[in-house]
Structure formats: C-alpha cells, structure tokens
Amino acid sequence: MTPAQGPNQGPNPALDRPACRLGVNIDHVATLRNARGGTDPDPVRAAQLAIAAGADGITAHLREDRRHIQDADMIRLKDEIDRPLNFEMAATEEMAEICLQVSPHAACLVPEKRNERTTEGGLDVVGGQQTLTPIIDRLKEAGIRVSLFIDPEDAQVRAAAALGVPVVELHTGAYHHAALSTTPSRIEAAWRAIDEAATLADDLGLEVHAGHGLTFHNVPNIASIPAMRELNIGHFLIGEAVFMGLDQAVREMRRLITDARTGRLV
C-alpha cells in the first residue's frame, strides 16, 4: 500500500492535489519548561526552529489550567513568529477574551476537561450550538479564522457547516489507536470515517484540517486524502526531537506529507 492509497483503495491517479500544510504544535516544549520552572526550553524558539524546518504554521493550546502554554507565550508567539498562529482554546468567555487580545490568524475551538492528559475527542457541535455560536460570532467579527475540532462524523460535520465556520479539524485519535492495533478491518474503518467526513466537509464548502496522534508511520494515509488541507501535529514531533532534533523531525514530517500528496513512495 502506497501513501497515496488509503487502506484497500488501489491506485489513485489524482496526484495533482493541492498542497497539504503542516502546522506544528509546540505545547509540550512548554510542558518540559514547566516541569522545572524558569524559561528553558523556550516554546517560541521551538516555533521559530519548526518554521525554519518547513512548518507552515504554529499551533498552541492555552488551556484553562495553564498546564503548558502560558498567556505570555501566546503574546510572544503572535509577535515573534512570521507564520500563522493557530490558537487552540476551549469555548469559554475567558479564552475568547484572551484570544481577542492576542488576535491570532486562527482559533480552533476544542473540548477541554481538567482531568484529561490530552484532548480525548471532538466537540459536540450538534448539542453545543447555543454555547458555540456567540463565541464563534465574536471571533469571526474580529477577523479571526475559526475552526471546530470534531470527530469524523456526518452529523458533526453538518452541524459545523450550519454554524458558518470556514474550517473543521477532524480528530484522528481513533485512526491512531486503530493503526496501533494492526487489525486491518479496524484500520480500514477508522480511515474511511476520516475520508468520508473530509469529503462531506469539502462538499459543504469547509476547509478540512486534521490532527491528534499523527506519526511518521500513520500520517501518509491521512495526508493523501484529497480534501485534506492541513495537518496539525505536536506531541509526536516534540518526542522525536529528543532523538533526532526538532529540525530533522519537522523536515521528515514535511517530506512524508508532501510525498503522500504527490503519490511518491516513502
């Protein structure tokens, strides 16, 4: 199976797909810094290194409990990087106010639980429209590009489109866990769900992003989905940086994504 073929797809002649951007999430550089306190390692420096290595943008999640990224980090990122900043945030009044002050290029609304280690799933857009609508409207009025982090489900995609956001980011956690299982039918089902949700979103006029649990091993089949326009990857890249350096980790991920879009074997 080549990267440009999804599970059991067979050859795909559509090799003239638009490029798929790479957004690098630098949250866990801040996690490492906070483990000891002080200023090192600096997440802003990590963002600059990632950009130099080929990242098209930087993502950072300002959590309500400030477990990694801090308010000052967001301000510095906006001021000191020369690529788009994607501000991941819970759909709360506090975060909306901070986001409006920072004025990033984009804001991705994500679900957030105090006791979770990482984001465990997508937003319930179907059931949360009353909460999401005023936040979305305020950010859009300020010229911030809003995306919703959702599970790859038909109902969630349609609800996101109904709210008028320009972008959805599909949660790829289920595909990550399926790939770890090495069970072909499970991998196939998880990949199909993402492919179908991406196709539906694209048909509805939404730009499609994806992220969560993407690695060197599993990213090619996600990047090869024709509707995919951006992948946001963090924890894996920061982990690989320990062994190969952040520069090389980002360059390798950039290569894998590009090769998947053009149908080249990896």
From TrEMBL:
3-amino-2-oxopropyl phosphate binds at residues 25, 36, 213, 234-235. It is an enzyme of class 2 (transferase). It catalyses: 3-amino-2-oxopropyl phosphate + 1-deoxy-D-xylulose 5-phosphate = pyridoxine 5'-phosphate + phosphate + 2 H2O + H(+). Its EC number is 2.6.99.2. GO terms for molecular function: pyridoxine 5'-phosphate synthase activity. The active site is at residues 61, 88, 212. Pathway: Cofactor biosynthesis; pyridoxine 5'-phosphate biosynthesis; pyridoxine 5'-phosphate from D-erythrose 4-phosphate: step 5/5. It is found in: Cytoplasm. Keywords: Cytoplasm, Pyridoxine biosynthesis, Transferase. The record marks 169 as: Transition state stabilizer. 1-deoxy-D-xylulose 5-phosphate binds at residues 27-28, 63, 68, 118. GO terms for biological process: pyridoxine biosynthetic process. GO terms for cellular component: cytosol. Catalyzes the complicated ring closure reaction between the two acyclic compounds 1-deoxy-D-xylulose-5-phosphate (DXP) and 3-amino-2-oxopropyl phosphate (1-amino-acetone-3-phosphate or AAP) to form pyridoxine 5'-phosphate (PNP) and inorganic phosphate. Belongs to the PNP synthase family. Homooctamer; tetramer of dimers. This is Pyridoxine 5'-phosphate synthase. The lineage of its organism: Bacteria, Pseudomonadati, Pseudomonadota, Alphaproteobacteria, Parvularculales.
